[in-house]
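Hi everyone,

Forwarding the result from last night's run.
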Amino acid sequence: RTLCMPGSVDSIPAKGNSEDHVSNSTWCARKAATVVANTQYIIGVEMLLAAQALTMTEDLLPGFVLGKGTQAAYQEIRRQIPACLEGDRWFHNDIVVAQSFVVSGSVRAAVEKSIGKFTQ
């Protein structure tokens, strides 16, 4: 909850409210870095779960064709993380690899190789 709260909320006036507020920029930068890392983790998990869902539905949807970009992303994920269709396994290592997709941009690179550069 506090990670996304503005740092200005915690600003502390000095010398009886007669001086400038104390800067919280260092604290805000650390919070922002944590938010970025958490977001990378969440997006990695979402990609892992999306790939798992596609794998599980392949037999149920014969003839279903993924878009070029989606297919490229799926293949890149499956190149590094095998599907888990039988039994249980510890997913920590898979999640770490999935997070690395976001950090390194490897899935994005695979998609851009397939469909071209993203534009803004």
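The chain has four helices and no strands.

Cheers,
N.
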